[in-house]
Amino acid sequence: MLAASRFFIAVCVAILLAACDRAPTLPRLSPHDVILAFGDSLTHGTGATDATAYPAVLASLTGHTVINAGVPGDTTASGLARLPGVLAEYRPRLVLLCLGGNDMLRRLPAAATENNLRLLVGTIRASGAEVVLIGVPEPRLFGGAPDFYARVASDMRLPLEDAVFNEVLKDNRLKSDPVHANAAGYRVVAERLNALLHEAGAL
Length: 203
Prior knowledge:
A 5-stranded parallel β-sheet has the order 2-1-3-4-5, with helices on both faces. The chain has a two-stranded antiparallel sheet with strand order 6-7. Helix content is about 50%, strand content about 15%. The protein has helices spanning about 1-20, 40-45, 55-60, 75-90, 100-105, 110-125, 145-155, 165-170, 185-200, and strands at about 35-40, 65-70, 95-100, 130-135, 160, 175, 180. The protein is globular.
């Protein structure tokens, strides 16, 4: 009996560990569900036209309405202040959250940026929407996305894309300046996000 109990406990632990290792999933979007791209100049599409910013390209790839709510210069703190109004206006089912780059450019404390990201995610979820977190690289040579993106995504069970902007901004063919993509770069971002949304089950 004792051996059977131990075996049962071991199986339960194995199942729980497997569940924890599984990538976070998203509910499937209906055809009329709105996707909100919320962020700073990388979301706005600085370095390209409105039609070639990643939200516009993603809309064409997915067939969904994708609202571009990117504001150049936005930090996680200013984004947190304007987020409730944007959520109330568009009532999205899914939010693509891409903030933190301006915090790093202004050398704001990483702990404050991480805390604000958590508050942003909480605000979005409280509205009934799901979240995909998009990480951006540190503004230095060979700088990848800071660890706080992965911590927030892991702790809050979010799909995370924290590599694509790093890859784009290392390729001179895909960027308009050191911290912004060009039209070709934003297309790469949109294609990567489209693939992530399919993998996560939203599309």
